[in-house]
Amino acid sequence: MSFSYSRVLRIIVVSIAVALCACNDAPGRPGKNPEVARPDEVLDFNILYKQNCSGCHGPQGNGGAAIMLRNPVYLAIADDNVIRHTASNGVPGTPMTPFARSAGGMLSDKQVDVIVRGIRAWARPDVLVGVSLPAYKQDPAGDAQRGAAAYATFCAPCHGTKGEGGEKAGSIVDATYLALVSDQQLRTIVIAGWPAVGSPDWRNDVPGQPMSAQQISDVVAWLAAKRTQFPGQPYSNADSRGR
Hints:
This protein is mainly α. It contains 12 helices and no strands.
């Protein structure tokens, strides 16, 4: 039985078409519309926060190795520009790395804006109505000697007379800790406290006696003066030359 050339050609074409259709259902082949968004196109706050922030600041901003971003006092003193600048550029000398591409990070400006808006949405201005807030940045300048007296009044009951820890809280003069925090971070913690671990804000270290702007700056200066000049170095430069 013979076949015409055209009939053979039609059979071959139909066979190829059937085979191609079968490939669409092959195991492991992506289904319809399987496209995954490019990393720089992700604009969902929950995803961006989880991937870039939660490891240090905790799920939903509740605090972890770094400050509690959901703290209403923190969000009252740190405005959009502060949060955007920190998220974009990081904090030199600390574990807070830059996230914006312009500073060497991985996020676009739009993604940084999404993170800023999402964090700001946690603010609760109603809980601080009528409260006179200290400035986010140092004002006035601090003095370490005066800071010793302020520390004794407001901090020593929890952190011990020398800052090395007490019954209620741990050391805040530990060389490793001070090497990893900036003066601004120290100031932020003094003002905003750390609710997740029971640390009060500047109003409640001594009930009914909030810290003044000067006392806040002075305590930060006292803590900064405890910072080791060369953290991690086991001996002084003079000893090093002798060895």
